[in-house]
Every structure is written in C-alpha cells, then in structure tokens.
Design brief:
Blueprint (H helix, E strand, L loop, with lengths): L17 E5 L23 E2 L2 E2 L4 E2 L10 E19 L10 E7 L16 E8 L5 E5 L5 E10 L3 E2 L1 E8 L11 E2 L8 E5 L23 E2 L9 E19 L10 E7 L16 E8 L5 E5 L8 E9 L3 E2 L1 E8 L1 H11 L1
Antiparallel strand pairs: 1-5, 2-3, 4-10, 5-8, 5-9, 5-11, 6-7, 6-9, 12-21, 13-15, 14-20, 15-18, 15-19, 15-21, 16-17, 16-19
C-alpha cells in the first residue's frame, strides 16, 4: 500500500463529495464511484440491465469515437497526493486504460460551466487490470476542487479514491468561530497510541457517526496506561468549546478524557506529553457512554494552540471530536499562503 492512502479521501461521499456528471451510466450509476464501503458483489444477481455491480459501468461504445468520463466534485479541496482506481469485480468488462484530470473551480459550478475550466492531467493514460486496485501517485502541489476520471474507451470502475491534504478556502474561516479540529477545515490526526478498530481521523469527519465503526476506537488495554491521539488543528487558533461525542459507544466509551494543547511549529517534532511544553485545556473529566458532551473551556486555559492531545482513560472509542474557536492572525496568514 502506498503512503498516500493514509491521507484523507477527498472524493468520499461521507466527506461531502459528489459525482456531478458522467458521459454514460447505462449499466451502473456514477454515484457508486465514491461510496465509503468496499465494493460488494453477489454472483448471479441479474436486473433488467444484466449482472448487477457495485460501481460505475458504461455501455459498449461499439467503435464510437472518444471515451467515457465522470466528473467528481471533491468534498474537500486540497493537494492531491495519489489516486486509486479500483476495478473490483469487473473482470470481463473493465476499461483497459484510464487517465485523470483535475481543476480548481470556485463557488459551485455546474458540469457545463466546468467545460471551460483549466483542466490539467495528474495521471496520464495508464493500463488497468480487471478486479484490481491501481495506485497512482500524484506529484502536483496545486489545490484542486474537481477531478475527471477518463476511461478508455468504456467499461466499469468500482471505486475512485482521491487521497490528499485538505486546504480550505480561508474566506470561509477567517474572523468566524469555526471547528478547528474539522477534517474539512484542514485538521488531521497525526499520531495516536492505538487504532486497532478504527482510525482517529474518523473523529474529525463531517456529520454524525452512524455506528461504532465511523469513530475512533482502540483495542482493550491490559496495563496501567491510557490511549491518546494528537490532532494538528486547521491552523493556530484559540479553542473555546469542545464537543466530544460517544454516540453508539454503549459499552466501550472511555471513563474519562483530558485535553492538552501546544503552540508548536511543524518544522520540529512534537515534544512528549510530559515535557512541560503542553498546557492543559481541559482537566481529566468524566464522560458518559452514548452521549454528546459540550464543554466550555475555562477562559484562563485558552491560548494560541496549533495541536491538541486527547487522552482517553483507559481506552475505548470516540465518535466525534469538535474544537470550536477562531483562527489567530498567524493561523489565518498560514492558511492563506497554502490556499494561494
């Protein structure tokens, strides 16, 4: 597995992406490309259009010129580090080649308006195999908002994954109270003690967790320690209120939590939690299972913060973590530089 696949999927439906247009979807609809689950298949399940597939499938072009394509609006604009084209279960009807283009468009353009966008090729025409995952690294540091999957000439693709770093539009964050820990605002979980059941980035995802798997959950500890996760915030900001949600975690939520903060440059490794560089935003606090908690931080505890460390005692799961506050002038400036 390539390193880029650990980055957020900017094209995931649950990260607010959408497939806004396709040249053809005669056999299977385009929306299947960005479902969050792994592609499914059940043999000999025939509908009115033939065998049913969990993916996007176009008709046979029968020698017609051109190729098929689908345009995906990324749920979170950003720097694309790699793309996965998955032809799972498409064995005799996969496209032999694919290429991918990307563009940056402001506001909410229609598919027709994107015709005049400045599309650039980020994955050249590349050979595909049936029933396989194809990982294509991308070396382009521009910010993109849309991608176009081209299949040559036709066929079926189960999933398209677009992994990268989120770069939000500063105008949507500057001068407002925002969620500094939101994935869609550029926050990331950069370290954790354990992610046996699910990854800590899940806590930062948009919306509510529908089940236990959509949060962060650790294995059971058999020692005297505790689990933790470190989150790099969207930018330097002043945290004021946290939301910690244990919904769906009936018998495996933590007993207590604690939140530490630090103002630190990304150029240097983060110091250990007991180094004295971290400060306490929220002391050890009891939490309840299956409950959304909203906690206002004490005024004396808030200060410029770039990273937070969530300690959970002793282990367990968190559905969502929100840290509401505002960006500092330095945080805004850094975000504007990334956006430009």
């Amino acid at each position: 597995m390539s390193d880029f696949t650990s980055l957020p999927d900017l094209a995931l439906r649950t990260n607010r992406a959408g497939v806004i247009a396709a040249s053809d979807e005669s056999f299977e609809e385009r929306e299947n490309l960005i479902h969050p689950w792994e592609p499914r298949f059940s043999a000999e399940t025939f509908g009115t259009k033939g065998q049913e597939y969990d993916g996007w499938e176009t008709r046979r072009r029968r020698g017609a010129p051109g190729h098929d394509w689908a345009i995906i609006r990324l749920g979170m604009p950003g720097n694309i580090h790699g793309v996965v084209v998955d032809t799972a279960w498409f064995k005799g009807n996969y496209p032999p080649f694919a290429s991918i283009e990307a563009c940056r468009a402001f506001d909410y353009p229609s598919a027709a308006q994107l015709d005049s966008a400045d599309w650039v090729e980020i994955v050249p025409r590349s050979a595909l195999s049936g029933d396989s995952r194809h990982e294509f690294p991308v070396a382009d540091d521009r910010v993109f908002s849309h991608v176009r999957l081209n299949i040559h000439p036709d066929g079926g693709v189960a999933r398209l994954r677009v992994h990268g770093e989120v770069v939000p539009d500063p105008i949507l964050l500057t001068g407002l109270t925002v969620d500094l820990a939101a994935l869609e605002n550029g926050a990331r979980a950069i370290a954790c003690s354990n992610f046996f059941y699910s990854a800590p980035d899940n806590m930062l995802a948009p919306g509510l967790a529908r089940n236990q798997a959509e949060g962060w959950e650790t294995g059971r500890r058999r020692d005297d320690g505790n689990d933790w996760a470190v989150i790099r915030l969207a930018g330097q900001g002043i945290p004021e209120l946290i939301e910690l949600d244990t919904t769906n975690l009936l018998h495996n939520s933590p007993a207590e939590i604690r939140l530490l903060g630090i103002d630190h440059s990304d150029d240097e490794p983060l110091p250990a939690a007991d180094s004295g560089d971290w400060f306490e935003l929220l002391p050890k606090t009891q939490v309840q299972p299956d409950t959304p908690h909203r906690i206002r931080l004490a005024a004396h505890a808030t200060r410029p913060t770039t990273h937070v460390r969530l300690d959970i005692y002793p282990d367990g799961g968190i559905a969502r973590l929100r840290i509401h506050g505002s960006l500092t002038a330095a945080g805004t400036s850094a975000l504007e530089s990334r956006w430009q």
